[in-house]
From TrEMBL:
GO terms for molecular function: 5-oxoprolinase (ATP-hydrolyzing) activity; ATP binding. This is 5-oxoprolinase subunit A. The gene is pxpA_2. Keywords: ATP-binding, Hydrolase, Nucleotide-binding. It catalyses: 5-oxo-L-proline + ATP + 2 H2O = L-glutamate + ADP + phosphate + H(+). Forms a complex composed of PxpA, PxpB and PxpC. It comes from Achromobacter kerstersii.
Amino acid sequence: MYDVDLNSDLGESFGPYKIGADEAMLDLITSANVACGFHGGDASVMHQTAASALKRGIDVGAHPGFNDLWGFGRRKITGDSPQAIGDMIAYQIAAMQGMARAAGHRVSHVKLHGALATQAFEDRALSEALTWAMRALDPDLVLVCTPHNETERAARRAGIRVACEVFADRLYGDNGLTLPRSEPGAVIHDPVAAAAQALRMVREQAIRTVGGKVVAMPVHTICVHGDNPQGVAIAQAVRDALLAEGVRLRPISQLDFQ
């Protein structure tokens, strides 16, 4: 029997703009990755998300991204030094730590968002900027990321614990990473298909790519994207499938991993 976390990227609304159905998602997941104001979110949303998670016994993490509200943090941005990016990440984590503390909660983990995560997977210096920020603020923070890349390797070198993440609602390329959203079928909208994929990944402790490869990896946490229009239905289907299989759902802070 496996202990698995079910997470979602939340808190991405800001000002008058509402993104996702956060309260409904918080009833289904065990950990929330909260936007820190750069690609989405604002101070009030961060505080409310942390407070709502605390009431439900759910972990909260910082979900930093590029300073790119216009592109929702999914556009590639280059030119900044690794230290500048590290400072940008530290700024966002610290903001989330402050708002969580104001709500009586604490930040347990960090998960990079969008293009920042994708670039870090292939960039050692950028990944080391991330691990520097995490260790500078709280060496007990857990990194949530896809394994077998520069980000995971940087975290291991820095002595940071890694929660290996898979995605219920995304397809994978043969490089072991999720397919770009621009490719047809890259995002799964069918709750039944997403639940079947999540359950298979837990059973096999591996992902399957569109090219037929099987890539072994421990499955510590499963993500359902909060901005997916079918996100709540997918999270419900995934949760139901895992519980029916006997999988125990636990927040990241309660998992036992290396």
